[in-house]
């Protein structure tokens, strides 16, 4: 049965955030809100968490997982960015974008695209997510909470708790979340390639 954490959307309770972070450090798989929609998250090196996310979403090994980072300094530890790409990403973060970039050695091989050796990264513009990342001190390994055969993610924490109680360890609820996943931009080839149009404005990358 998943623990249910009710978090204030504007002033997250430090004690509650600390409890969620402790759960993640202990290997928990959580559902949590972001500036685009709810996501599934676990600790960076959690093989069990990856397997559970794949099972819930029925993903194959070509799926790009995302490292949700607190800030640009943290993001830079996990991906290689040249100067032009740096400026483009810096101007768009924090925000509802996921960027696919070449992974550094800090990224476990199991998280990298098997052929391209890339990984997705993003910096969310969400008070609760930022508080959790600050407390955790490392990125969250994440994937959009979009269930198989459904067109839109769930938007309510209580609904996620009700439907996924048996496969999650915790649900973080800070009120209604958006329904649109991030915009995904692939910079692994040096130029911006729009992989998915989502919540982030694509005009700056066209």
TrEMBL record:
The keyword Transmembrane does not apply. Residues 14-200 form the YrdC-like domain. Keywords: Nucleotidyltransferase, Transferase. It comes from the Bacteria. Its EC number is 2.7.7.87. InterPro entries: DHBP_synth_RibB-like_a/b_dom (IPR017945), Sua5-like_dom (IPR006070), SUA5_domain (IPR052532). The keyword Transferase applies. One of its GO terms (molecular function) is L-threonylcarbamoyladenylate synthase. It is an enzyme of class 2 (transferase). This is L-threonylcarbamoyladenylate synthase. It comes from Streptomyces coerulescens.
